[in-house]
Structure prediction request, 88 residues.
Amino acid sequence: METEVVLNVKLQELEEGGFLATSSELPGLVVQGRTRVEAMELAQANARILMELYLSEKLPLPPALRRAFKRRTRLVNMALPVSVPVPS
Prediction:
């Protein structure tokens, strides 16, 4: 059985190009991508790996994850970034 967890992710544009995604709710989540979409995809994949590590090693979950696993709701609200072309 799986459950979905909604994490707040901070997406920062880097001066040298690309984007950095981090989350204060999941320590260790730090990824860099060439585009916003790539950074968010990498953040999602890495968040899953980190959560699996917490669970398999029986490490104490960060507070945001503890709350999410207690709720186990089927209704999830989340922000999904979508890139659209800018009209000329």
